[in-house]
């Protein structure tokens, strides 16, 4: 049996751990515990609940209103991992500077970033958004159409990214990707990037943006871009979306060509 003196000696250590990790405990509560409880109570998925909120609080055909409703839901109701408004503004700036005509998004999830990208595209541009989860894709489809974007602007592809990327040229007629946004499984960042390199769809100046490279993190992806010499790159440091105190970052890569 542990003596009271030994137990008391551990109290400062326990308090230190609680203080240092408090933001992670909050995230665990919001992202996991609240989700499990509301899944049981409502019988709906978190993504379906988010869509219902957006449907009743946003203006159809107004992308800004859609995004604002999403931001309120994610910050005040339930946590959903999207790019969020702070990193979203960095993405907006990149898109405005690049004015890409052909964009690939890997990881549609609920359609938040899909809408954010689509609203910043120039006239005549097209966004191909890839989502492997059929239930999430169904929600994303509703959000995208609610925002006012049709199939000519946004094409939603429901399949795993490693099955879609090799067919982008043959089935979708793509010759070049001007802009790629990655926000799917972090373990897929590196193999999907290498697969894109192999397709020949990345040209000099093509931009790749990858979210959450610091948290949850994509260390193999970051090591590769440091060493391969194919990209000019930097990491935009920020905090995790809809959270405080958790450091994150978004990688920006500009393809320089195969050497």
Automatic annotation (TrEMBL):
One of its GO terms (cellular component) is endoplasmic reticulum. Its EC number is 2.1.1.6. Coiled coil: none annotated. The chain crosses the membrane at residues 6-29. One of its GO terms (molecular function) is catechol O-methyltransferase activity. GO terms for biological process: catecholamine metabolic process; methylation; sensory perception of sound. It catalyses: a catechol + S-adenosyl-L-methionine = a guaiacol + S-adenosyl-L-homocysteine + H(+). Keywords: Catecholamine metabolism, Endoplasmic reticulum, Hearing, Membrane, Methyltransferase, Neurotransmitter degradation, S-adenosyl-L-methionine, Transferase, Transmembrane, Transmembrane helix. InterPro entries: SAM-dependent_MTases_sf, SAM_O-MeTrfase. Gene3D superfamilies: Vaccinia Virus protein VP39. It is an enzyme of class 2 (transferase). It comes from the Eukaryota. It is found in: Endoplasmic reticulum. Its main location: endoplasmic reticulum. Belongs to the class I-like SAM-binding methyltransferase superfamily. Cation-dependent O-methyltransferase family. This is catechol O-methyltransferase. The lineage of its organism: Eukaryota, Metazoa, Chordata, Craniata, Vertebrata.
């Amino acid at each position: 049996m542990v003596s009271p003196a030994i137990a008391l000696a551990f109290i400062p250590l326990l308090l230190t751990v609680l203080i240092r990790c408090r933001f992670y405990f909050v995230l665990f509560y919001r992202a996991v515990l609240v989700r499990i409880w509301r899944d049981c109570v409502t019988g709906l998925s978190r993504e379906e609940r988010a869509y219902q909120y957006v449907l009743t609080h946003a203006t159809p055909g107004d992308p800004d209103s859609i995004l604002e409703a999403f931001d309120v839901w994610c910050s005040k109701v339930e946590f959903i991992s999207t790019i969020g408004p702070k990193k979203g503004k960095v993405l907006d700036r990149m898109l405005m500077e690049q004015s890409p005509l052909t964009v690939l998004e890997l990881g549609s999830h609920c359609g938040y970033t899909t809408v954010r990208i689509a609203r910043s595209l120039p006239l005549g541009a097209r966004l191909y958004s890839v989502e492997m989860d059929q239930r999430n894709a169904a929600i994303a489809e509703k959000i995208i159409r609610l925002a006012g974007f049709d199939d000519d602007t946004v094409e939603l592809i429901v399949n795993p990214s490693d099955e879609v990327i090799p067919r982008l040229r043959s089935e979708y007629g793509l010759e070049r990707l001007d802009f790629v946004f990655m926000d799917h499984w972090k373990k897929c960042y590196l193999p999907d990037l290498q697969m894109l390199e192999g397709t020949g769809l990345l040209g000099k100046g093509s931009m790749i943006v990858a979210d959450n490279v610091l948290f949850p993190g994509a260390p193999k992806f970051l090591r590769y871009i440091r060493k391969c010499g194919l990209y000019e790159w930097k990491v935009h440091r920020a905090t995790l979306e809809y959270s405080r105190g958790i450091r994150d970052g978004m990688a920006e890569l500009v393809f320089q060509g195969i050497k």
